[in-house]
């Protein structure tokens, strides 16, 4: 939960609450959808690129945390297995 965030996610028309990474992505999504409604090609282009970059950034961070956790679990399980007759 430390990585995902403990704040519950909620939003209404004006306020988005939750983990920082979720709030960031939801705000970008709302801006992107507004660009679509306005047929604003420049905004759509910029925001789609920004959404892609932010998603990649967050997924990379999550993946790195998962890899670290797996490595730690492997060390612990190896240590435990040494002492099982």
Describe this structure in words.
With 85 residues, the protein is mainly α. It has one domain. The protein contains 2 helices and 2 strands, in the order ββαα. It has helices at residues 20-38, 41-82; strands at 10-11, 16-17. Strands 1-2 form a two-stranded antiparallel ribbon. β1 and β2 form a beta hairpin. α1 packs antiparallel against α2 (41-82). The longest helix is centred in the last third of the chain and has 42 residues, at 41-82. The radius of gyration is 20 Å and the shape is elongated. The model has no long low-confidence stretch (mean pLDDT 88).
Q: Secondary-structure blueprint of this entry?
A:
Blueprint: E1 10-11, E2 16-17, H1 20-38, H2 41-82
Helix pairs in contact: 1-2
What brief labels describe this structure?
two-stranded antiparallel sheet; 85 residues; 2 strands; 2 helices; mainly alpha
The global form is elongated
Number of domains: 1
**Unreliable spans:** none
The average pLDDT value, as a whole number, equals: 88
Report the structural category. mainly alpha
Widest sheet: strand ordering:
1-2
Helical segment count: 2
Bin the helical content.
over 70%
Computed CA radius of gyration, to the nearest angstrom: 20 Å
């Amino acid at each position: 939960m430390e990585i995902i965030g403990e704040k519950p996610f909620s939003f209404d028309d004006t306020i988005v609450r939750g983990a920082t990474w979720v709030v960031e992505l939801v705000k970008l999504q709302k801006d992107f959808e507004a660009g679509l409604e306005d047929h604003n090609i420049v905004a759509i282009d910029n925001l789609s690129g920004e959404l892609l970059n932010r998603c990649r950034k967050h997924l990379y961070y999550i993946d790195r945390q998962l890899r670290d956790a797996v490595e730690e679990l492997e060390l612990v399980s190896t240590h435990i297995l040494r002492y099982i007759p």
